[in-house]
TrEMBL record:
Pfam families, alphabetized: ABC_tran
Family: Belongs to the ABC transporter superfamily.
Protein name: ABC transporter ATP-binding protein
Taxonomy, superkingdom: Bacteria
Keyword check for Hydrolase: no
ABC transporter domain span: 23-263
Swiss-Prot/TrEMBL keywords: ATP-binding, Nucleotide-binding, Transport
Keyword Transport recorded: yes
One example GO MF annotation: ATP binding
InterPro entries: AAA+_ATPase, ABC_transporter-like_ATP-bd, ABC_transporter-like_CS, ABC_transpr_TagH-like, Bact_Polysacc_Export_ATP-bd, P-loop_NTPase
Organism: Raoultibacter massiliensis
CDD domains, per the entry: ABC_KpsT_Wzt
PANTHER family: TEICHOIC ACIDS EXPORT ATP-BINDING PROTEIN TAGH
Length: 263
């Protein structure tokens, strides 16, 4: 359960169980402070700070957004660029704390956000699998037992000893997806993670996600710019536009409305 600074209280696991919920986003607002001028170096920043010329303007990335995700739901999030989809997922994953409102989570999360962010690119893939595994909370013995499975899924066996700085973005995504889904998460968060993989790997990931959904009732939150992919993978969707929740409902209805806005 995430900390929260404001009046709306996140629900505890028992309360979430009673409602059969995996995720509850309650009146969430996220405000970012953005520098009002461009400063290109620490020196410029320091001078502006000393002259008291450092100004910020507030940017509301999410404005009073609420929705509930039941256990086993597969929810897509659609919306145009900069509408707040990734910000929403980061709040659900606990990477960001909302400025207002509360986000309650029921279960362990595998966040596939900013894939490879936990990797040290100077290290080899072998070392990074252990490093990333430890960051996700797995014991070394667990990674030892699943190492072959991770490498086979990622299809990087021939490059295991190569520093990951020499990997392509698609290869990094393969390793990250593979490590993150080797356990069965209660909640899987996928943010454009698959877009850098080639179509064969994307198909493989979709299959793995379907397995998690069908065999383990994993709850999924899925952001993709491919409406077709959202329709294929998800059963429900929300549409966030410029920080506002525009629609929440069955995936076909939400995607149809979103498409008609673009036409
Ligand atoms: N750390 C930050 N500081 C300032 N502004 C931010 C920060 N993170 C996101 N934003 C702003 O919040 C808005 C929403 O960003 P977000 O990445 O959530 O959008 P998105 O819907 O995922 O976009 P895209 O489809 O382009 O990936 C954008 O205008 C972005 O510039």
């Amino acid at each position: 359960m995430k900390k929260n600074k404001n009046t709306i209280r996140p629900l505890n696991a028992a309360e979430m169980d009673a409602l059969d919920l995996a995720v509850k986003v309650d009146d969430v607002t996220m405000v970012f402070n953005m520098a009002s001028q461009q400063l290109n170096s620490f020196k410029e920043y320091f001078i502006a700070f000393a002259k008291r010329e450092l100004f910020f303007k507030e940017f509301v990335a999410l404005d009073s957004v609420s929705f509930e995700v039941r256990k086993g739901d597969v929810y897509g999030i659609v919306g145009t660029n900069g509408s707040g989809k990734s910000t929403m997922l980061k709040i659900v994953a606990g990477v960001l704390d909302p400025t207002k409102g509360a986000c309650s989570i029921n279960g362990n999360i595998a966040p596939l956000i900013e894939l490879g962010a936990g990797f040290d690119l100077e290290l080899s893939a072998r070392e990074n699998i252990y490093l990333n595994g430890a960051l996700l909370g797995y014991r070394k013995q667990y990674i030892d037992e699943h190492f072959e499975e991770i490498v086979d899924f990622a299809e990087v066996r021939d490059f295991l000893e190569l520093p990951m700085k020499n990997y392509s973005s698609g290869m990094i995504a393969r390793v990250a997806f593979s490590v993150a889904t080797v356990i069965v998460p209660d909640i899987l968060i996928v943010d454009e993670a698959l877009s850098v993989g080639d179509m064969f790997f994307q198909e493989k990931c979709e299959k793995r996600i379907s397995e998690l959904i069908e065999e383990h009732n994993t709850t999924v939150l899925f952001v993709s710019h491919s409406i077709e992919q959202v329709e294929r993978v998800c059963d429900k969707a929300i549409w966030i536009e410029k920080g506002h929740l525009r629609m929440n409902g069955p995936v076909e209805e939400v995607c149809a409305a979103y498409r008609s806005m673009r036409e």
